[in-house]
Amino acid sequence: MARTRTVFSLSFVAIIALVAVVAGVVVGRASGSGSGGGGSGDGGAASGTRIDVIIKASDSSFWQVMLAGADQASEDFGIDVSTFGPTSETNIDEQVQLVENSVSRGVDGIVIAPNSSSALNSVIDRAREAGVKVITVDTRITTQSEGFIGTDNVKAGQQAGRRMCDLLKAKGRTSGAVLVESSVAGIQSLVDRDRGFRQGLAEGCPGVDSKLQRYNNNDINTAASQVNDAITANENLLGVFADNNTSGVGAVRAVADNKAADRIPVVAFDSDPQENAALADGTIDALVVQNPYFFGYQGVLAAAMAAVDRTPPREIDPGAVVADQKNRETPEVKSLLEPPTAEPGS
């Protein structure tokens, strides 16, 4: 039976946590200790529930924010949380091995941001067959899990496309090409994001060509080189859309090197210190900011629910916010731009 899709904003994190406490969804099976970040919070016997959190890459501040959210849930509810991640978003084999390790250690649940929509299907199926509850975040998989938490990337991409169109109209430049600078080919969240961007851009700027696209394999230097090449090859390049923080940092570097910030607007996804600095100085015109802290925090709660045979929400979308120079200091936006971070294994 289909379950209702739920959308939450940042302000609802505390409410969701309260509901979890009232419903007793994080009551564990038995007391115990583990190697993770389990704390002495209100979870009581929930300290016996062991949850592994596996991010996409340990080299990204975005995913360290997700770990911080997971660690906070551990502290708040006494859930035994351990955190892991491959070194790069392109390292699918390492992520598969991490899932296998979690199953071998007998954890109750796994929260994972998959690096592929399909390559982890078999190992996730084996985990669930072994009784491990699996919550996926950020990227949907094409097999079953107990729940999904992530941004509707088509809608978020549309937000980016509409903002790019507004920026181009403000400059009086609505005929030409924009570059879509993408991190990794074939990642469904990025595919959806790029598709949404094109849809949002076309709504108000049908004369702008968005077919030009490059993939940088989540490498800042490659992204910078690709954006630089696009700028030097096309003096009339209208703008750059970067679909994750790595692509955004590379785009910023290239635009700054070419002294083109006044001419070429940049709209990017996510946030990290370099992107935030670029937003402040105007090298980036807008950031579409997700809530990875929510991914980690609510992912742990959802996995804990499933581990004690309660049914977590099938889908939760925390939404995305467009940050710019006008709103970046407001409390809600600032909390997304400057969230706490953590390191794998913390």
UniProtKB/TrEMBL annotation:
GO terms for cellular component: cell envelope. Residues 51-307 form the Periplasmic binding protein domain. It is found in: Cell envelope. Pfam families: Peripla_BP_4 (PF13407). It comes from the Bacteria. Keywords: Signal. One of its GO terms (molecular function) is carbohydrate binding. Residues 313-346 are annotated as: Disordered. Belongs to the bacterial solute-binding protein 2 family. This is Monosaccharide ABC transporter substrate-binding protein, CUT2 family. It comes from Cryptosporangium aurantiacum.
